[in-house]
Each structure stands twice: as C-alpha cells, then as structure tokens.
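Hey, can you fold this one?
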Amino acid sequence: MAITATVRRRVTEDRVSVSIPSYGFPHSIIDHTKVKKGQQIELTGEVTRIEHYSVFRTREAVAAEKGMLVSNIRPGGFVVLNADDQHVMAMAERTVERIVTFGQAAGVDYRATDIHAAFPERLILTIEWTGGRLTLQTRYVAEHFWLPVTAAVAAALELGVPAQTVAEQVAGCEPFHNRLSVAAKPDGPQFIIDTTKAPWHSVLLAFKALADAKVPRKRLILGHMSDFPGSDSKYRKAYAAARPIADQVVFVGDHSQAKRTGTKAAFSLSLPPLKSLNTSAARRPLVNSSSSRAQATCISSVSRCHGPGT
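Sure. Predicted structure:
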C-alpha cells in the first residue's frame, strides 16, 4: 500500500512531521534525507492491522489484539488497566510486569468518583488513590471521558508527576478536534462536534452527551456509521435512541430513509456523495447549543469509514 504525505516540518535530526490525507492529526516518521517543508513524499508498507467490527467481530477478538501491547511491556515497566472491564483485566495475564488498575469500582489503585458533566458544564471528577484525593476540572463535555482522563492521571502519578501539576495540565487540556469538541458562533449556537470516527457503539455515547446537556432546545443530526455500511437496522435503532432526547432528529446520507418517524419533528436530507463535500468537517458526531438561541445539535457519524482504522 502507498499513500502520499506532505512534510510539515522537521522535528529532530532524523524525524519529520507529515500530514496524511484522511488522518486527523500530524504524524511523525523517520527520515535521514533532506526533505523540506511542503514537499510531498510517498509512504509505502503493508496493511497489518484494521480496527472496526467488520474485522474483529467480537469484544474478545478486539481484546486479544490490544493485549499485544501488554505482552510487549519492557522489563521494569508497568501497565495501566481498566478494572471495570473484564476483557481488559484479562490482559494482566500477558505480562509479568507491574499492574496498575483504575476504574469506578472499589478496590482499584485509582478510583474515579463524583463524575459529572452536563454541557455547558464541563466534566468534573475526583480521583482517589493511596497517596491522596484529587478533584479535577476538565474541558471535556461528556461523562464518558472520565475513563481516558483517569487512565492518564494514573500513569502520570505513577511516573512521579506532582498531583498539582497533573490537575493543572488536565484543566488546560482541550478535547481533540472533532471528538466532542466545541465550536462556538459568537452570539449564536455552539456545536459539539464528534465527526472523527463512526462506530455504532460510540454513537450512543454522543447521544448521551446531548441527553445530559442543560439546554432548552436540542437538535441531533445522524449520518453514516462505519461498521454497518449496508444495513438499515442500526439506523432505525439510532433513531429510536435519539428521538426521546432531541427536539429534532435529522438524517443525512444514504440511510436517510431508513427510519420510520411518524412525527414531523424528524426529517431526512439526501446529499451528494461524501467525496464532493468538505470531508474535513464531515465524519462522525456534533453537538450545538447556545444561551441566546437555546439549541443543541448533535451530528453523529457522518463518515464512510470503510477502510483501515486506527
């Protein structure tokens, strides 16, 4: 497989930062030549791993794949595992190195409690461990972000980073672009955008973020889900989940006729193929709200991600 990347800048003497089409963030590669900013280079290699339900099919298969990371921990290292997930905890058997656990259940090394988010109120949580108790204010808009935040905090504290420094860094960390990130229009609505990836299981997390939002009016827009490109059933289930939480539900794309609404509060749009749209803004969920117009919109799953994932 070969793809064309554009050189952004040189990071170190032997590594450069490049941008890759359809890849949301800069990527660095080893380079011993004299490539310059703006130069296009060809990257070649074999496709070795593909994410998504269409390949792994079961949680057990996904766990087996991710468990390879645990199997390759270097001597003297440690692994941070989510104790609330039995498939994750089973990975502990794949290493003899130290295991650090986190989760919401009692008995873990780092326990997350008092988790709350209700847009425009951002996620706040408390983490308790043997060494203390730390309340964290974050920039995230949904409660499910407690998991990556707690994992990162556990790793940082285990590495000796002072708790106060951890809290400061968490407070200043903005969500990744298009992953339930907020785009605000001056004196107008605010959009919570989650358009980077489109698996069914995480669509419902975006829906919950909209359900929890404290705004008088909500709109939800649903596009394509990557794992079921030819099936309408998931879209019907998505509508059933979306309708109780939104004042208006909008379907966009090939499956826009898949639901049976029975109400004027939902409607569909048939747009040109995605390749003719601005794909940088069209991939998975989005939420919009404002104090002045009092509305919230969630655009969920606008990508046709049928190819390799990460």
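The CA atoms of residues 113 and 126 lie 5 Å apart. Let me know if you want another pass with a different chain boundary.
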